[in-house]
# Entry
Amino acid sequence: MKQQIVVLIGFLLMLFMVFPLITVFDTYKLVWGIPVQAIYIFGIWIISVLAIALVVTNKKLRKK
# Structure
């Protein structure tokens, strides 16, 4: 079960990192001096790392 969820998170990460979706955030706007595209890329990366960490450390998702 854990492996399936981790693979799903990996596919979602690839889905959010495709070129057309990244170009939506390719603007010259800055948020606190940081480009919006960089915030998007690092935000998705951090969320995926935290999601995988939660899945791996969750004791309720045991292999059946």
